[in-house]
């Protein structure tokens, strides 16, 4: 069973994400800020991280930097960044900083589910 970490400081958005993914057969953990996400990453292995760009304590980019420098991690999870930064330049920067994919906010729950299904099927093929 795939394991997903959802890191977003907005409770309503985290609930929307988790509710949207409930029909997929996945384990989901939640973090309310970047530091909590990092703490969970040191305790668990994830196949996918759905990561908000702007969070307190550590931003999504700072979380990615931490993941990049984690020696203990057996396999790097796919990082799906959620961001209100929707300009092409911003999106290129997000990918350059280490995100594997992104979805611009606001987003459709159906688009999120389709994206996550695609990512998880790619992971399972590896």
TrEMBL record:
The residues covered by the Response regulatory domain are 3-120
Q: What InterPro entries does the database record attribute to this sequence?
A: CheY-like_superfamily (IPR011006), Sig_transdc_resp-reg_receiver (IPR001789), ST_Response_Regulator (IPR052048)
Query: Which residues are recorded as modified (4-aspartylphosphate)?
Result: 52
Entry-linked CDD domains: REC_hyHK_CKI1_RcsC-like (cd17546)
Q: Which GO terms describe its biological process?
A: phosphorelay signal transduction system
The answer to whether the entry has keyword Phosphoprotein is yes
Q: Which Gene3D superfamilies match?
A: 3.40.50.2300
SMART domains xrefs: REC
What keywords are annotated for this sequence in UniProt? Answer: Phosphoprotein
Can you say what this protein is called? Answer: Response regulator
């Amino acid at each position: 069973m795939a394991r997903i970490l959802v890191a977003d400081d907005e409770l309503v958005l985290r609930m929307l994400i988790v509710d949207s993914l409930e029909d997929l057969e996945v384990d989901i953990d939640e973090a309310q800020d970047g530091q909590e996400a990092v703490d969970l990453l040191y305790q668990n292995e994830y196949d996918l991280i759905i990561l908000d760009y702007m969070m307190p304590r550590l931003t999504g980019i700072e979380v990615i930097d931490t993941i990049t420098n984690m020696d203990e991690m057996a396999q790097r999870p796919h990082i799906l960044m959620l961001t209100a930064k929707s300009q092409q330049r911003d999106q290129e920067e997000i990918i350059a900083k280490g995100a594997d994919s992104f979805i611009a906010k606001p987003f459709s729950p159906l688009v999120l589910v389709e994206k996550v299904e695609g990512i998880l099927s790619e992971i399972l093929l590896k």
